[in-house]
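Subject: sequence -> structure tokens, single chain

Hey, anyone have a minute? Need the predicted structure for the following. Not urgent.
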Amino acid sequence: MFGKVLKNEIRHSARYNLTIYAVALAASVLMGLSLVIESSGIGVASCFALYIIGIITVVITLVSVIKNFYDTLFSRQGYLTLTLPVKGSTLLLSKVLVSFLWIIVGFAIMVATWVLIFIYVRHQTADEVSVIKGLISDMGILELLPSGFVVAQVIVVLAILGVSKMLTYVGFIYFSVTVANTKKFQNHPRLFGVITFFLIMSVTSRVSDFLTVKAPLTFFVTSEKAFFSFDIMGSINGALLSYGVGGTIFSAIVALGLLVLTGYIIENKVNIK
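Reply:
Had a minute. Here:
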């Protein structure tokens, strides 16, 4: 049964999301082709447009995920959805998985647009880059830069953390929307939804800041390796990059707990208007 619910969720959400991605890809291709034109003005405008396209794609994806969650559970369509012989937790799990899918696609499109910008800028500044590389090589700085394998590790870790953070926000929003549509708060669902969301964000941020000091977990990058450590950011000599991940992990755990609670509320407390 879960497979059918998941398939239906993908089919329903794809109608809107695939249209968004098709438009974004068409615009990206058009802007990419315009970069071939030997004009610095057009090149700058196209790069700016590509950057905006990438950001907008991710933002619209998040809006679509939230809108689909509300429409299918708490609007008129919710009457049909919640009468299905499926547990609320199963419905929620299908929505979370599909949300994950669309967020990944949205991020992939954004990264693709930024790659086009990078390729264009690198081509336009090839001579300058060669000179800078020569200077850096003479100064011995290249020896301090991380290897390609370390760079790949950094990209993978930061990508996972980025997607995790976005899904954490989705978990917070799902819970806030669900609570706001219970009987006690349904008279002012938007107000209570916003209040609940910012309350969760405030408490989570404060605890995350506390953990950063008392039990820090940091991702360090040196010229030789990338690794996790319980040292405070900036405390390791020779680190080229340090990023605290303890708060991100804690927020993800909170979001997971709230999603479990959201499933319970959907099954037992939700009140469709």
